[in-house]
Every structure is written in C-alpha cells, then in structure tokens.
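Q: My labmate handed me this sequence with no annotations at all. I'd like to see what the chain might look like in three dimensions before we decide whether it's worth expressing. Could you predict it?
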Amino acid sequence: MLTRRLPPLSLKARLGLAAGLLTLTTLLTAAMVVLGMAQVSDRLDSALAAERRLEEYAALSTQVSTFIVVAAEVIQRGQPPEVRAERTDTIAANMRRTFTRLRAGLDAEVTSAESLGLDAQTRRATLSLSIARMEARFAQAHDGLISATDDRDRLRAYLDTFASGFEPLLAEAVNEEKRLRREILTGIDSLRQRLTSVALAMGLAALLLCAAVYLGLVRPQFRRLDALRAAAQRIRGEDFAIRLPDDRQDEIGQLYAETNRMAEALATRAETVAQDRARLNQIIDERTEALRAANMRLERTDEDRRRFFADISHELRTPLTVILMEAQLGRQGAPDPQAAFATIETRATRLNRRIDDLLRIARSETGQLGLDTAPVDLGALVQDAIAETAAELSNAGMTLAAPGALPEVTVEGDRNWLRQVIVGLIRNAIRHARSGGALRLEVKPDGTVAVSDNGPGIAPGDQARIFDRFAQGSGGTAQGFGLGLALARWVVEQQGGTIAVTSPLPREIALGDAPGTKISVRLPHGRA
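A: Here is what I predict for the chain of 528 residues:
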C-alpha cells in the first residue's frame, strides 16, 4: 500500500510554528513566575501575621504583669471587692481585646493555611486552643479576684494559680509562633531557590529553543536570501548569467524561480540593446569626430585672428604714442626740433619693423613670431633701452638707478625683440609704480636683467597669472600687466631664457616703504 507523502511546510508555517513555541515558552515562564510570586506573597503575609501575633503576645505579657502587680497590691491592702473590680477592670478589658485579636488572627491563619497542608492547619488550631486556655485562666482569676470574699489567702491562691498556669501557656504560644515564623521564612527561601532553578531551567530551554530555531530555520533562510541578494547585485551589474536553485517549493524557492526567469529575459533584452547601442555609438563617433575636427579648425582660426589683433593693438600703441608726443613738442616750439624729428623717424622705423613682424605672423599658419637669433651685447642693449625710455621716465618724475659700468655679457637672442622686452619692463614699472618715484635696473654676469620698482606690489594670488594674455590684478592697487608680459615671456622662452616675478621685495633690497615688485629676465649666454 502506497503512503501519501505530505507536502512540506511553507516558510510562513515554519516561522509561525517557531514563533508559537517561543510564545508558549514565554507564557509558561511568566505563569510560573506569577504562581511563585503568589506563593511568596502568601508566605510573607503569614510571616507578617506571626510577627504581629508576637507583638500581641508581648503586649499580653505586659498586661498580665500589670494585672498581677495591681491584684497583689489590692490583696495586700485588703481592698473591698468594689475597689478590686475598679482597679482591675481596665486591665481586664485590654487583655480581653488582646485575646480577641489573637483568636481572630489565628482563625484567619487556619483558613489560609489550607495551601500549606494539614500539619500547618493543626499547629495553628493548637495555638488557638492555647489562647482559649489562657483566656479561661485569666477569666477565672479575675472573677475570683472581684468576688465577694475578703479572705486574703484565698485571693492569693487565685492569683498564684493564675500566675503559675498562665506563664507556661504564654511561653509555649510564643515559642510556637517563633517556630512557625522560622518555618515560613525557611519555606520562602526554599521556594525562592526552587523558583530560581525553574527560571534557570526555563531560560536555558528558551535559549536552546531560540538556538534551534535560528540554526535550523532562520540561518538557512538567511543564506538563501544572501544568495538572492548576490544574484540581484549581479543583475544590477548587467551580469545575467545566473542560475539559482529552485528545487524547493516554499516562498523563497518561488522567488528563486522568478529571478531565474527575469535574468533570462534581461539577458535576451540586453543582447538586443547592446547591438543597437553599438550601431548608434558608431554613428555618434563618426559624427562627433567630424564635428570635433571642424571645431578645432574654427577655434584655431579664431585664436590666430584674436592673437593677431591683440598683438597689433599692443605693439602699435607705444610707438605711436611716442611719435604723437614728439610731434606735439615740435609744434609747441621745442628748442631742438631736429632731435624731435630724429625721434619721430626712429619710432617710425621701429613701428615699420613691428608691422612687418605682425604681417609675418598673420601670413604664417601658426601665428608665431619670427626670431632672428644672434650674439647680442647685453650691456649695449640695456643702454639702448634706458635711452629709449629716458623721456618717459622724466615725464613721470621717476629716477632710474642703473650701474655706471655695465658688465660685458654676451647673450644669444633676437636683439630687436630683447630690447623691446627690456623697454616693456621699464614701461610697465612706469605705468604701475609711478607713485613710488624710483626704479632700479640690474645687469648680472650670468645674463640676468632685472627691473625693480617701489610700487604697491602684486598679490600672491595674481603672480601665477600675470604672464597670461589680458590678465589683470584682482585688487584696485594690484598691477595688471596685460598682453605686454605675455608677449615678453613668449619671446624670452622661445630664445631659451626665463622670466620671473618677486613681490614683495625683501626689505634689504627694497627701494622704499612700499612692497615693490621685481621682474627678472635671464638669457642664455652667446658666443663672443
């Protein structure tokens, strides 16, 4: 006979079963704690009741002692029955109330001791009988004391009989109450130990159950979910070559199967998209390359045109300014018109030379200057630059400190352009450091020419870009050198030299209190 195989439990059912077991364990633990606390509470109530009865016994002992003392006094004095009754009635009433409270407490203890067993009930009932016997002895002694007899011996017999019979009963009751209290406290400690053991056992059972649920149910599902997450990450990275095991029919197994189908569909779609993208990228690359080439040609053409006009603007303005100034001086009746005409002729010749250079730039494909390098006497070159700018220095009210005997230094470069670079450095100093009133020109044997001024200096943030075309200082007092220094740097570097700026100047070489600026040009040595 074939047995029908039961379908496996779903993940929801297994998780629900595990949760139910954990809940049941928790409920059992809570129930045991509640029951244990209830028993502890009952035992504590019994211990407190015994403690209160001991206090009542102490009060009763005091009352009995007082009764015996008062009774002995009235007997000794031979007081009549009315006086004896009056002196002892208050004490007797207090003792009766004490007996009533003791009986009520023990009756309640007998009822509540049902849960503690028959022995506990019997012992409490015995205590109740002892209380009744003590009360009967007291009633007999009190009745005899207030009787109509005046016989002292008989009255003392009543009192002695009461005293000798009451004290053992009271002591026995007190001792029994103490034993009951000790037993109750011992029972509380034992119950505490049992509850602790049970709590530890239940905690261990809950811990083992949690470990079993985690190791047998939760952790395997976590591993399966980790595999699913790894598959999702691979899909996100467009890796669709995945295959998750879908042999289980629970919820995660169904999710595995759906993930496998999704990966297959995405792989097919990705292949189609990749083919379309490849064709599209090929078309885009072809069009982009064509546009890039056209843009580069346009940018190069535009850059050449802008540089050409910028160079024209800068290089033509200075000679024209000098020509106009000399013409104005001649028209105003200069004392030496021949010198003015000579200056105009020199400037016109130089301007013609600059126009030829700029035309060569315009006709060249690269827009570069044509340099004619040869050995140049640097001292003579500096003297020419000083002579060329003498009038401008005088008009600006500035003095130029230069060495009287310039060193004989031969450098390699284009004489005309090198002279123009040095002249440009002096004019930049005149334009931007006029307020300082002083310049210094230095020539060193290593081929270095330096122009220092007493101007406001150049901010550190501007020093890296003053050699850019059209660069201007960032502040109102900063120096903006424009195209002049850009062209000077290009000319110097094309001939193998370097140009650098120092600002502010160290105090030991400064020309005044202002920060000052120093532009240094170093040229390569030439053959003599």
